Amino acid sequence: MNELEVSMQKRWMTALFLVGIFVLSPSLPASADERRDSAAMTRLIAPISQSVKKSVAQVVTGGRPVSLATAVSSDGYLLTKRSELSGDPIKVRLSDGRMYSALVSAVRRSHDLALLKIDADIPLTPIELTDSSPPAGSFLVSAGRTGRPIGFGVLGVAARRIDHQGRLGVRLYDDGSGRAVVRQVVENSGAADAGIEPGDLIVAINGLQKRGRDSVVEMLGGMFPGERVRLKVLRPTPLSGNLVNLKVMEMQASIRDFSQLRETENDTKVNGPRSVRLSGFDKVIQHDTVLDPDQCGGPVLDLSGRVIGINIARAGRVVSYALPSSLVMTELSSMLQEARSAR
């Protein structure tokens, strides 16, 4: 055991004692030093987060931070959360404060991952992923760009699937002639914000002609929260007598998570800001670290300093999801190959 591991082990004996008091004795009021977010606790877990400081960056687009990114190769590639990226230029701020432009080199929609390549000939310090799977109840540390831990939590649920719940926010029916007609528009949905109205006919999605309700539902069902769709809509406009004119309209609409469409104002206050995409993952681990949406994309470590996953979504007030390192390693290999072969 090296000097760093010994130091970490001593610190964690103290940390586990304090957290044990907090977790196992919920009836007792926690002192300031016993809270997970206390300054004392932050000092105890700081060495773990510091160990990956050079491998964590911040992604900025549209003039604001949107996520973290994790360096995965020495030649300038980083992984981040795809759904938080917009069409605006991307900047990456490294741990030392330097900022560089970056481009998306590969994506994996099913896992909400984007591989970025910085526009600079500088070496990065890649993260060292491990395929270990910590059991439920394990303590986890989420690392930030500056080396300061951004969160400390407990793994609550082992790796599992989170079903896809992306919705445009319309209810449809067939008009009898093979066309999909909007019966209802869900409040606060992407469809509502785009201006879709009951009675509109959806005839094309992303440039592809669609006939009938089932065809439209099938294509929309393959879209993930955070993605945008181009819709061609025909809107009936009454003319004189019994005549009707079909006005052709082009619209851009966002796909949103179904749980957010059902969220009340009180739910929003309790949960706080959540990730644009928080469902449709083949395999994630769940932990109770309190993260902001723009803190996803960075590494999650166990008490030994091993990187066991990449944070991918804030799903609730104390519900965060991370992609297991074993899954990330599998996807990363093909993503890097794809990106390098395209250069």
From TrEMBL:
InterPro entries according to UniProt: PDZ, PDZ_sf, Peptidase_S1_PA, Peptidase_S1_PA_chymotrypsin
SUPFAM superfamilies from the UniProt entry: PDZ domain-like, Trypsin-like serine proteases
Record flagged with keyword Protease: yes
PROSITE patterns cross-referenced by the UniProt entry: PDZ (PS50106)
Domain PDZ: 156-220
Keyword Cell cycle recorded: no
GO biological process: proteolysis
GO molecular function annotation: peptidase activity
Keywords: Hydrolase, Protease
SMART domains according to UniProt: PDZ
Similarity section: Belongs to the peptidase S1C family.
Name this polypeptide is given: Serine endoprotease
Source organism per UniProt: Rubripirellula obstinata
Species lineage: Bacteria, Pseudomonadati, Planctomycetota, Planctomycetia, Pirellulales
